[in-house]
């Protein structure tokens, strides 16, 4: 069998952070087609003429599905984690939005940036990076070491 590679969503807008629902029926993503980034959902795989739904209100980035597919999370421009319940049934049925986590103290919020900066565990808890002020106006740093095992071998020959 042959596989084709092609765009799933294609428009003049910027479309980012696409995630497929756990049941494989829906695609959530952020797009600036309205002039600011919002969260949209459309059927997956997409076919011509299928409708899409705007889930966020007042801006949204970084969609993530709950593991059971019954909620769609995203971060608003203040960095808060928002929740949109998804009704059961064959049609996409978004419910009312709820703010789950205040976001000002967590990094990665806002209207800019293109990567997802949080995750949700199977039990519904969130993994987020909390900002820490050091009191003197400075902030802490995070160092990422790539090829860590190679660095260990270099520092400890014979390991």
How would you describe this structure to a colleague?
It is a single chain. By secondary structure, the chain is mostly beta strands. The model has no long low-confidence stretch (mean pLDDT 86). It is built from one helix and ten strands. The strands form three sheets. It has a four-stranded antiparallel beta sheet, with no helix packed on it.
* Biggest sheet, spatial arrangement of strands: 1-2-3-4
Helix-strand makeup class: mainly beta
Low-confidence stretches: none
Alpha-carbon Rg, integer: 19 Å
Describe the structure concisely for a colleague.
The protein is mainly β and 159 residues long. Helices cover 5% and strands 28% of the residues.
Fill in the keyword field for this structure.
four-stranded antiparallel sheet, single chain, 159 residues, 1 helix, mainly beta, 10 strands
SSE topology:
Elements (H helix, E strand, L loop, with lengths): L14 E6 L5 E6 L6 E6 L9 E2 L6 E5 L5 E5 L5 E5 L12 E4 L16 E3 L5 E3 L19 H8 L4
Antiparallel strand pairs: 1-2, 2-3, 3-4, 5-6, 6-7, 7-8, 9-10
């Amino acid at each position: 069998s042959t596989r084709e590679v092609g765009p799933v969503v294609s428009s003049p807008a910027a479309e980012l952070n696409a995630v497929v629902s756990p049941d494989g029926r829906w695609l959530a993503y952020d797009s600036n087609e309205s002039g600011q980034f919002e969260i949209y959902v459309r059927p997956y795989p997409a076919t011509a003429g299928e409708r899409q739904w705007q889930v966020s209100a007042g801006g949204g980035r970084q969609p993530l599905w709950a593991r059971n597919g019954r909620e769609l999370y995203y971060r608003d421009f203040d960095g808060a984690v928002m929740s949109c319940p998804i009704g059961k049934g064959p049609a996409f049925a978004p419910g009312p939005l709820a703010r789950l986590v205040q976001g000002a103290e967590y990094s990665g919020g806002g209207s800019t940036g293109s990567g997802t900066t949080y995750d949700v565990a199977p039990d519904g808890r969130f993994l987020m990076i909390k900002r820490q002020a050091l009191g003197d106006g400075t902030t802490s740093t995070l160092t990422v070491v790539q090829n860590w095992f190679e660095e260990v071998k270099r520092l400890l020959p014979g390991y």
